[in-house]
Design a protein that fits this description.
- The chain is mainly alpha-helical and 226 residues long.
- The protein has one domain: Heme Oxygenase, Chain A, CATH 1.20.910.10.
- Helices cover 77% and strands 0% of the residues.
- It is built from ten helices and no strands.
- The longest helix has 28 residues, at 46-73.
Length: 226
């Protein structure tokens, strides 16, 4: 499997711009993946959409605990990142219930949700994010945040529209989680840009780049698995 090269840090530009440049190959690989293109063009069957929501539930459920693990490891030299994570976790609190609501619209109850076994791609994604926050570099969590918010804000709209059309859903019923995060995560990206530009040390920058690339790649694998 081809892995994008993690270029070294460039201290001459704001890190947010640097991060975009160093991870753009991975973003474009997600954007041009045949499975992603198929979903945007044709939506999903109800069976596959149920599977997507079941997977998304576990992405969302683990988002705040991963951020909390990272925040607990950040020293005072990264206090501003720690406070960013505190605020961000409050904004994301309870969003897994939005996924539950969408699942109920398409016929999946909480008992079915509890029986769902996450895909290997999702287990790898969550496992890496916890491990990287705890053992690699806690700033790496910003790579997870960046990748997931790019996916939601840039690609969530077309994906939600295609699913709504293919399943003949009424309004935002059944797609409330995906559609609501299009605008919400565009706003979050402005806040994330400010946080990323506070990162000065090259080790943290490289950890964030690695995390971003991993999250783009394994979210792609997640979509391929449904």
């Amino acid at each position: 499997m081809h892995h994008p090269t993690i270029l070294r840090s460039d201290v001459t530009q704001p890190f947010f711009i640097e991060l975009i440049s160093r991870t753009d190959e991975s973003r474009r690989a997600f954007e041009t993946n045949p499975r992603v293109l198929q979903i945007v063009a044709n939506g999903l069957s109800v069976e596959r959409y149920r599977q997507l929501l079941l997977e998304l539930y576990h992405v969302v459920w683990h988002f705040n605990p991963t951020c909390a693990a990272a925040a607990s490891r950040l020293g005072d030299q990264h206090s501003e990142i720690r406070y960013f994570l505190y605020d961000h976790m409050m904004e994301e609190k309870g969003h897994e219930e939005w996924v539950v609501n969408d699942l109920e619209v398409v016929g999946i109850g909480r008992q079915d949700l509890r029986r769902h076994r996450p895909s290997n791609a999702l287990l790898a994604l969550n496992g890496y994010n916890y491990w990287s926050a705890d053992r690699r570099n806690p700033c790496s969590v910003l790579g997870m945040v960046y990748a997931l918010e790019v996916i939601a804000s840039v690609y969530g709209g077309p994906i939600a529209a295609a699913i709504k059309e293919s399943l003949l859903l009424d309004g935002d019923r059944g797609i409330s989680f995906i559609s609501s995060h299009v605008t919400m995560d565009a706003e979050h990206m402005a806040e994330l840009r400010l946080a990323l530009n506070k990162i000065q040390d090259s080790d943290s920058k490289d950890a964030i780049v690695e995390s971003t690339i991993f999250n783009f790649e394994h979210f792609t694998r997640l979509l391929e698995a449904i």
